[in-house]
Design brief:
188 residues; mainly alpha; Rna Polymerase Sigma Factor, Chain: A; Arc Repressor Mutant, subunit A; 9 helices; 0% strand
Length: 188
């Protein structure tokens, strides 16, 4: 790429001219895709990262300083950092997912529990409805805390608090081990 073209792109970026993104994509898109792909090793994810990077580039265009780095170096860093962040995010999400098939939690004494004899529904009705709703979303509908927060339009911190309090209330009714086993029976 010629120095004049690079200088022209930088001027367009600093002027917030839409042509800058088009020129950047035409001249750097494939290379930045390669940068993203090298980090995540997934074509579709790399494409998403390039798009996300271009949004960041556009939003941060006023922070680019040609005296500190060449344009490509700046673009490279944004794309690489975005790819690393995305990879960490995907890894964290995968690590946090519950692997029910590989778990032995459900095998501990659950077969001997008979939910029809535990009057679970009757006792759940003793808990305030705001806790019932959260327990229902998390345990019976299989939502994550984040999904429940979005679906119920309740802040994530409130979801966590209501879950904790709801389980505490169940513990008062069933005792610590029976409350857990009651939930596990209903979930399985």
């Amino acid at each position: 790429m010629s120095i004049l073209l690079e200088k022209h792109i930088v001027e367009l970026l600093q002027e917030r001219n839409d042509k800058a993104i088009s020129l950047l994509y035409d001249h750097y898109g494939d290379t930045l895709f390669g940068v993203a792909y090298k980090v995540v090793k997934d074509e579709e994810l790399a494409q998403d990262i390039v798009q996300e990077s271009f949004v960041k580039i556009w939003k941060k265009s006023d922070t680019y300083d040609p005296s500190k780095a060449k344009l490509f170096t700046w673009l490279f860093r944004i794309t690489r950092n975005t790819a690393i962040d995305k990879l960490r995010s995907v890894k964290t999400k995968t690590d946090k997912e519950i692997q029910i098939d590989n778990s032995n939690v459900y095998k501990i004494g659950v077969d001997s529990i008979r939910p029809e004899l535990m009057d679970i529904q009757e006792n759940l009705d003793k808990i305030e409805s705001k806790y019932q709703i959260v327990l229902d979303a998390l345990f019976f509908q299989g939502m994550t805390q984040q999904e429940a927060s979005e679906e119920l339009d309740i802040p994530l911190g409130t979801i966590k608090s209501r879950l904790k309090i709801g389980l505490r209330e169940l513990k008062k009714i069933y005792g610590s081990s029976l409350a857990l086993l009651a939930l596990l029976t209903l979930v399985s």
